[in-house]
Amino acid sequence: MTTISSASAAFTGNDPENRLFGPVPDVTGQSGYETDHPARVGFFTDTSVCIGCKACEVACKEWNTLPMDDSHGVRDVIGLSGMSYDNTGQLGANSWRHVAFIEQSRAVDLPMPTFGRPGDDRRGSGPSVAEGENDGSLAAGQQSSVLNAEALSEFDPQTGQSGTDKQIRWLMSSDVCKHCTHAGCLDVCPTGALFRTEFGTVVVQGDICNGCGYCVPACPYGVIDQRKDDGRVFKCTMCYDRLTDGLQPACATACPTQSIQFGNLDELQARADARLATLKSQGVETARLYGRDEDDGVGGAGAFFLLLDEPEVYGLPPDPVVTTRDLPSMWRAAAAGAAMIAGVVISSFLGRRP
Amino acid sequence: MTEGLTAPGAGWRRADGPAAEARGKRRRRGGRRGGGGEVAMVDDATFTSYYGRPIVKPPVWKSPDVPLYLFLGGMAGSSSILAAVADVTGRPTLTRVSRYTAGGGALASVVFLIHDLGRPERFLHMLRVFKPTSPLSVGSYILAPFSGAAAATAAVELLGWFPRLKRFGGVVSALFGGPLATYTGVLLANTAVPSWHAAHDQLPYVFGGSAMAAGGGVTMVFTPVAEAAPSRRTAVAGAAIELAVMHRVEHDHGIVSEPYLEGRPGALLRAAKACTAAGAALTVVAGRRRAGAVVAGVLLAAGSLLTRFGVFEAGLVSAKDPKYTVVPQRERLAAKEAAKLDGHASTITR
């Protein structure tokens, strides 16, 4: 009989190198599944085509019957965040998809700059109408437009007459549980409620979780959270129930622009690499993949992203590391500390009795 | 073109917030156009975040449940060792007092730990698997035998039954006492909470020292001074260790040490230091007089308790401010990039 272990690969005896981090070629097999297990699946979220429609959020809430909550995760409250179109605010126990909205501007000294588009953030980027002008002599262009620029300098760029000094763009990104190769939540769960599925995803068993809350601060992305009135923790399951029936997760099914792509992880990675190359060739130099690299602090993520700015702009940690990477060192310190206590107490009995 | 296009992120900044303010100032100063005004803004933006929202989730552990658990567990752990050695070396009063302290502390800490669960009725699920990667799982297997043995030992001490069984229970609890006092440091440190994780090799020693100060202090209060010399020495040594290692926690970790020094946790930890230092000094000076021992013992226990609250709250502060997550990770990335400088690294965010 196969024993599915909820412990990290390092402690199951399957890994000779005793790793708590770094790449794992077969994370599912390492958790104890037989070799005929399904391929590892994942999400590739291409934020360059996200339109911020939040269909993923709605589909997720409906399929998983998640309760309503406000932007701070308070249940059954309607609350506007007051900061953007984002009233979901964060991932949490009741929001397993979260579309981030970031409105950005930048200064440009162009006579007729292109209107901001995601990815259109470099001179000569993409098949832009204004490409020719942009690529022309900037100095000449500036000089000839000084009067015009002064006159229009107070114009709101959002009116479309953005001629003078600002470009606007919106970044939208649908965030989700990363289903890490080395999942901090899974490592620290003391009950075995969190486990690795045959698809390589990480899922909470609601009938086991006793609400200790350890997974909540252990997640380097701040994904999993406790439902206060329930006591247990909840997070994205990558629609485990749908996967077992051969369906795609609800969010990927609902996404109208294929910003959320579901599939076998290795295929998604190849697709993402190709997409990144395409964007780079179009001049979108700030495009980068996030969570794709298997040498990162969590051994690569099962759900990874194509971003157009630094990760922290989207509320993602720039260099997440699974906390258990340092656990051997912590256990050594705890053992040495315990020995220190015994030593101090025993030696306190030495010497002359008064 | 403006310097914005050579800056990281191609000059894109959040459209509201500091950027808007910077633009406003620029206009009032009299129309310096374009990138000039943006320069000051770049200087301000030492880190970026998503509307200032936290990245890691602050722990959902309740206060005072968890800090009290940390304190009581530590106190009980060190007292159980005191009790066992006092028993062997023939100090009956110190033995009895230490056993009561260990038993009471063990029972109370279990109550607080279970009360902190979201589903307290499922506390036995803690024992359905054993996971070395989970400090809480390991801790459960430390706490369960410890609290059983320590509480049973205290009970038979009270009732005066089974003297030999009592000694056995005392030894069992003493074996688990040290790990109980220090594993809680791992419990906090093995999280993504920046200020806890950064101090991961120091918190077990802080909590170990704090446990000795508390255990020594409490047993000192209730034991006649003639028998309490081991309690006094344990307490003073523990206080010294706590103060020394806590100093490193507060100063070795750059920006993530800040929460230990500022605001409410900073105030708690300053009070903790004052209590611990005063208690230790008073133990040395007046520990052999009854009144001195009582005051010193109370101060030491209070110092230990305040340390636990201070460390706990510093962690909450560090988790709630994205600064403490982003800035150290950025520094780490910069160091990695500097160390490597491979072409490949620039395309993939690590």
UniProtKB/TrEMBL annotation, chain A:
Protein's name in the database: Formate dehydrogenase beta subunit
Gene3D superfamilies reported in the protein's UniProt record: 3.30.70.20
GO molecular function, one term: metal ion binding
The entry's keywords: 4Fe-4S, Iron, Iron-sulfur, Membrane, Metal-binding, Repeat, Transmembrane, Transmembrane helix
Subcellular location: Cell envelope
Signal peptide span: none
Binding site for [4Fe-4S] cluster 1: 50, 53, 56, 255
Organism: Geodermatophilus nigrescens
Residues annotated to bind [4Fe-4S] cluster 2: 60, 236, 239, 251
Transmembrane parts of this sequence: 330-350
Listed cofactors: [4Fe-4S] cluster
CC cofactor note: Binds 4 [4Fe-4S] clusters per subunit.
One GO process term, biological-process aspect: cellular respiration
Domain of life: Bacteria
One GO CC annotation: cell envelope
Domain 4Fe-4S ferredoxin-type: 41-71, 168-199, 200-229
Pfam families: Fer4_11
Disordered: annotated segments: 110-136
Residues the record lists as binding [4Fe-4S] cluster 3: 177, 180, 185, 219
Annotated positions binding [4Fe-4S] cluster 4: 189, 209, 212, 215
Automatic annotation (TrEMBL), chain B:
Superkingdom assignment: Bacteria
Keywords: Membrane, Transmembrane, Transmembrane helix
Protein name: Polysulphide reductase, NrfD
Transmembrane regions: 68-88, 100-118, 138-159, 171-193, 205-225
Region of interest: Disordered: 1-37
InterPro entries, per the entry: NrfD_2
